[in-house]
Sequence to fold (457 residues):
Amino acid sequence: MNEIDKSRGIWGSKIGFIFAASGSAIGLGNIWRFPYVTGQNGGAAFVLIYIFFIVIIGLPIMVSELTIGRATRKNPYGAFKKLSPNTRWRFAGGLGVLTGSLLLSFYSVIAGFTIGYFFKTLRGDFVEISGVSQSAEIFSAFSANPVYTVGLSLIFMALTALIVVRGISSGIEKWSKIFMPVLFILLIVLVIRSVTLEGAGKGLEFYLKPDFTQVTVGTVIMALGQALFSLSLGGGGMMTYGSYLSKKDNMVSSAGYIILFDTLIAILAGFIIFPALFAMGGDPSGGPGLIFVTLPSIFMKMTGGMIFGASIFLLLSLAALTTTISLLEIPVAYFVDEKGWTRKKATLWASVLVFVLSIPCALSLGAYEWFTSLPFFKIGFLDLIVIIFANYSLVFGVFLIAIFVGYKWGIKSAVQEIEEEGNVFANKRIWAFLIRYVSPLAIIAILGYIIITGNYF
Ligand code: PHE
Fold:
């Protein structure tokens, strides 16, 4: 058994695993999405609901994913197959592998944008612009250029593959231990710069002032969806990382650290964006365009704005990279476990496949009309993938995990795995309750909401 484990890979240390898993969780979802979603949904009121879901649903599901992974030491497909042989449950794992791979296909495109914008900012592209309308034009031209969008996503996939191919401890863990501290320091420096700008206070007020009048059912659903996405749950990522844990690791405390870091970084990201925007007179309600359109329009108004701007895009690229690594690891683990391929062959094929899928995403932001507004759906290819995989499939994946652990594999078996080698799971009763009742109901609510209203998170 140990022989096989070693050849699959294993984390070198607890802290290494926490860095890697936090790296997976901390991504564009934290630094790009969380701040604008909070700004649009009632500030601190939204943050409180978000934290509530992180604790009552995110934490229990994260523990479940890690446990399934470690109990089986397999990729999601192999994990469900092993715990429930000859049943259809393996397709729940298969859905995880598929979801993870397709999330990567669009994620790598946006991640590529962050590298592109890092260089554009450094090159001084935003130095002489007059305002938002011009930065919007720059963005449209950029996203409609297939050489940039496809090329940058290729570069991002290649970087990701170069790290994943080195394996768990000497690739993913080693690089996460370098990237995560750099990311944290960069973030802190940017927060300090932003909150000390004159007029920053108004931004903080906008970002965090609780406005309960803006809290609707939609807000609550948004908070839950954002919590699941931000913690990398439902797509098989945490399950795969859990499969490289050793039996002595305390998964409950590790999960606690991961959610703590993830939430902290998300909240801090808002402390960079909003104070700077308010201080420089930018419009905070830019939604998804906040990072690529609104933000660049204020760089030239700031002393040292070019460095500030480039650092933000560097921060985004780093955060995205530790996430794409974890996403690529999902299909790689699948090919290694299920097909018996070497890591090298698995990484090559998984990244080529995902890259091919990312091409229509990259062409759907203005480069090709057909992909930009798909016949019948009337939305772009990238948006369609986001709706199917980052909404339905991800949430459904979480539902299946809760049902599987709560009723099929069983709480008892899971607790036994969690308590291996003398670890004590003090809150197992509360955990069981959250997994069996609270999580499935919350997921039914969120799925019902997106089906009925057609709104996505
Ligand atoms: N957590 C990542 C982010 O915040 C996204 C992600 C979702 C990664 C699901 C893996 C699985 O950017």
Remarks:
- The radius of gyration is 21 Å.
- The longest helix spans residues 89-123.
- Residues 24-25, 27-30, 103, 229-230, 232, 235, 237, 323, 326-327 surround phenylalanine (CB under 6 Å).
